[in-house]
Amino acid sequence: MVLYKSGRKWEEVVFIGEYWATIDDKGRVVIPSRLRKVLLSQGVKNVYITRGLEGCLFVFSESVWNIQTEKLKSLSFTRGDPRAFTRLFFSGAFQSKIDRQGRIVLPQNLGLYAGLKETIVIIGAGDRLEIWSEDNWNSYSKKALESYGKIAETLLET
Question: Where in the sequence is the domain holding 129, given as residue range(s)?
């Protein structure tokens, strides 16, 4: 969750939902209006897109990107796993402006990484958006739903 200053109070922003979209021939995708309204209401004009996990792309607002950057910068570069992760995370990163039609550009290298074709799925994942190929999302969500209850028991134990 991310807190944004709005007037005199802090507002919590959480991205939710599952949306199907298409990529045009120039690699652009329209951010669904509900998600776009959340971004624009917080003054977000640019997003950061990078390699996600399980074959998706992560899309961060600038403020969340800065938070993630600080966390990753604190990892030891002398250890192999943090070094490999930060290399892949940052080398795949791309900044995209949200245009007047609410579109962002998905670079070809990231589209290839995520196996994106014409139809994609954009999901709200709390403090970020995720972009999935339709096939990968259907496969992942089907498998994850099978263990949803067990995961909840593990994570939500009191």
Answer: 13-155
Q: Residues, the chain, total?
A: 158
Beta bridge partners of 61: 47
Tokens 């259907």 identify what position? 138
* Domain CATH code at residue 60: 3.40.1550.20
Task: Provide the pairing of β-strand 28-30 with 103-105.
Answer: antiparallel
How far CA 104 is from CA of 81, 118, 120, 132, in Å, comes to: 31, 15, 14, 15
| Amino acid found at 138 | N
Helix (H) or strand (E) holding 103: strand 103-105
Q: What is the pLDDT of residues 23-38, one digit of tens each?
A: 999 999 999 999 998 8
**C-alpha to C-alpha distance for 88 and 83, rounded to whole angstroms:** 9
Cα separations in angstroms, 131 against 9, 82, 84, 155: 31, 24, 22, 24
- Terminal alpha carbon distance of the chain: 21
pLDDT at 124: 96
Q: Which residues are bridge partners to 103 per DSSP?
A: 30
